[in-house]
Amino acid sequence: MKLRFQPGSDLSAGFNALTFKGKWDTFEASDYYKTVVFGVGKTIFTGQLSNIPDSSKLALLRIAGKGLATLSSETYKDKAYIGFSLPLSGTVYNTIKLNESARVATVVNSRLTLLKSLAVIAGDAGLEGVKITEKIFYRNFVSETVAKADTLELFAPLKLIKQFADADITNQQFIDQCIAILNSNRVQVLLSNGS
């Protein structure tokens, strides 16, 4: 990130206006967070997503604020989803050890806890579910020097997330009822294939 200030401006004051020093809880309690940061949420939580209660919106913005995901409003087959674009993990999978199915299963297994935590929005009217988007990097560690990437999209209905969080269904039953799309093709995810 590069910051530019007008010549002769007070750099310290300008930098302090753009940053916050302290703990996340203190930042969340500030007027700036309530008016500016939470105000940005109004551009994310549009349409049917505007029905989400403020407490759930804050919980979702907290996920984004901690760098865990970027939030967006998504539509899939005419139904509203809240989208989570996950940051690049830095992991590059070795194709000699993990084929495509195993890579997808490994990534999905690693996201089950996050999906379970989203049960907080399960009762919100008009929202079908959650969409998670993530890049999966891979290469043959013997013969390739440059990694390639698959794009995984996982659509999870909120009613299933709630059942999963309440331990009414197993991990595999949950994933079997979700929609997993890899590079624009629907795939089946067998969690036992993961590492």
Chart the SSEs and their pairings.
Layout: H1 11-18, H2 24-29, H3 31-44, H4 54-65, E1 70-76, E2 79-85, E3 92-94, H5 100-117, E4 129-139, E5 148-157, H6 158-165, H7 171-176, E6 179-182, E7 185-187
Give the gist of this structure.
By secondary structure, this protein is of the alpha/beta class. It contains seven helices and seven strands. Strands 1, 2, 3, 4, 5, 6 and 7 form a seven-stranded mixed β-sheet that branches.
Low confidence ranges: none
Largest sheet: 7 strands, mixed
Mean pLDDT: 83
What coarse outline follows from CA principal-axis ratios? globular
β-strand percent reads 15-25%
Tally of DSSP helical segments? 7
Number of strands: 7
What brief labels describe this structure?
single chain, 195 residues, alpha/beta, seven-stranded mixed beta sheet, 7 helices, globular
What report would you give on this structure?
Helix content is about 35%, strand content about 25%. Strand 1 (about 70-75) and strand 2 (about 80-85) form a beta hairpin. The model has no long low-confidence stretch (mean pLDDT about 85). It has helices at about 10-20, 25-30, 30-45, 55-65, 100-115, 160-165, 170-175; strands at about 70-75, 80-85, 90-95, 130-140, 150-155, 180, 185. Strands 1, 2, 3, 4, 5, 6 and 7 form a 7-stranded mixed sheet that branches. The chain has one domain (about 20-195). It is α/β, with parallel strands linked by helices and about 200 residues long. The chain has 7 helices and 7 strands; from the N terminus they run ααααβββαββααββ. The longest helix has 18 residues, at about 100-115. It is globular and about 55 Å long.
